[in-house]
Design a protein that fits this description.
The chain has helices spanning about 1-10, 50-60, 75-85, 100, 105-115, 125-140, 155-160, 170-175, 185-225, 235-245, 250-255, 280-305, 320-340, 350, 360-375, 380-385, 390-425; strands spanning about 15-20, 40-45, 70, 95, 120, 145, 160-165, 180. The longest helix has about 40 residues, at about 185-225. It is mainly alpha-helical. It starts with a helix and ends with a helix.
Length: about 425
């Protein structure tokens, strides 16, 4: 009979033994009610996993999220279910019962958690769950616990993120959890992780977008100072027009950027990683440096092409007004291409689709239209001290913007190639 029960459990069934006993009187003695029973047979109950769970578990694996099954079920049942949903794929997963956990001290438990990639903990109690959560946290892991019963409440409360089932879960579990799943689907957790990563990426995108153009505003001023030019390449009013008029709407549009398809293909970021990480600062300097070189080139090219000595330039010199207009327009145009460039971290923006965020295109178009008005409208020319630009000027500025986008596409290509080579070398 034990072999039959194990065979049923190995198929993922929860097995109950059904027995009977004849008693005299209406109430049998409580102490001996489970003795002298006649076994009638075994009943197996099958609770099929939801079809979306397999894809959700696979997404967690690609995202570097480790899944450990902690259950009160029979070890054979737990392993069968784990294999069905993709938690276990290898031939020899580590299956540990609650009794075996009791025999381990803290160092032994730490070694178990560190050395087992596919781990199933079966026949466990609420105390065991708490101990496992504490052990993971002791190793510096961010721990999420899912559960629906009152016996899950301590682990849900102690975990970094407690996730309770809203439809089938108990009130105790829902009160102890941080997040409640209204549809009771594990796939919703994966979706939430993807959305959280997307929000974090979008924050970094508009930070890179905003801070990179500050370099393009600062470097020309420093370059003019070191070159001995008596005037500034861009005025304070022009800087305000860029910061408040041209850059705000694209930055907001970047915050609503759709989720990238590779958002779940990278491991979790380090727990102590700052928002302004080394990669973010490097990208700001890379994009900002290209913009700065472009606007410095157009400014000094315009100044030198006039043949006028530096000392003869005044604020009302037409060539100077054209040059500072070129600097402002160069930053605005390059920021349009910069917004396209920072839309993705690794994927080519052309593969993501140039039209997939129409709000960004509209915001960038508004910034360029505002710059055109500052260049051509006489009332705004008087305020910003600008001059009208020719079609050739706009063509040169557009070429610098395309160069910036091409340089960023090359950087992403090299990053994808390096990542692919790393993954190929670890297989």
């Amino acid at each position: 009979m034990a072999a039959a029960a194990d065979a049923m459990a190995g198929q993922g069934l929860r097995v109950l033994a059904v027995a009977r006993r004849r008693v005299s009187g209406t109430r049998p003695p409580i102490g001996g009610v489970e003795s002298e029973l006649t076994l009638l047979g075994l009943a197996g109950m099958y609770d099929p996993p939801r079809p979306e769970v397999l894809d959700a578990v696979d997404a967690c694996r690609r995202a570097g999220i480790r899944i450990v099954m902690v259950t009160g079920d029979h070890p054979l049942t737990a392993e069968a279910v784990a294999r069905r949903v993709g938690i276990v794929r290898g031939p020899d997963p580590t299956v540990v019962t609650g009794a075996q956990l009791d025999a381990l001290d803290d160092s032994g438990l730490d070694g178990l958690l560190a050395g087992s990639t596919e781990l199933l903990l079966c026949r466990v109690s609420p105390e065991h769950k708490m101990r496992v959560v504490t052990a993971f946290q002791r190793r510096g892991e961010v721990v999420a616990v899912t559960g629906d019963g009152a016996n899950d409440a301590p682990a849900l409360k102690h975990a970094d993120i407690g996730v309770a089932m809203g439809a089938s879960g108990t009130d105790v579990a829902r009160e102890a959890a941080v997040m409640v799943l209204l549809d009771d689907s594990f796939a919703s957790i994966t979706t939430a992780v993807g959305l959280g990563r997307s929000v974090y990426r979008n924050i970094r995108k508009f930070l890179i977008y905003l801070f990179s153009h500050n370099i393009a505003e600062l470097v020309p001023i420093l370059a003019a100072t070191f070159a001995g030019f008596p005037l500034v390449p861009i005025t304070a009013v022009q800087v305000l027009a860029i910061d408040l008029g041209s850059d705000v709407l694209p930055a907001l549009a970047l915050g609503a950027e759709p989720t990238e398809p590779d958002v779940m293909d990278s491991p979790p970021r380090p727990r102590r990683e700052r928002l302004f990480s080394a990669s973010v600062m490097g990208r700001i300097l890379f994009l900002g440096g290209i913009q700065a070189l472009g606007v410095c080139a157009v400014f000094f090219w315009h100044i030198h092409a006039s043949g006028i000595p530096y000392a003869d330039f005044t604020k009302n010199t037409p060539v100077y007004r054209e040059a500072i207009t070129m600097v402002q327009a160069g930053i605005v145009v390059s920021q349009f291409f910069n917004a396209l460039a920072v839309r993705t971290d690794r994927q080519s923006v052309f593969r993501a689709g140039l039209l997939s965020n129409p709000w960004l295109l509209a915001a960038g178009g508004f910034g360029i239209a505002l710059m055109a008005a500052i260049s051509y409208a006489p009332p705004l020319q008087a305020v910003f001290h600008t001059a009208p630009l020719t079609a050739a000027d706009w063509a040169v500025l557009t070429a610098f913007g395309v160069l910036l986008l091409a340089a960023e596409e090359c950087r992403k290509w090299l990053l994808r190639r390096r990542t692919a080579a790393t993954k190929g070398g670890t297989r």
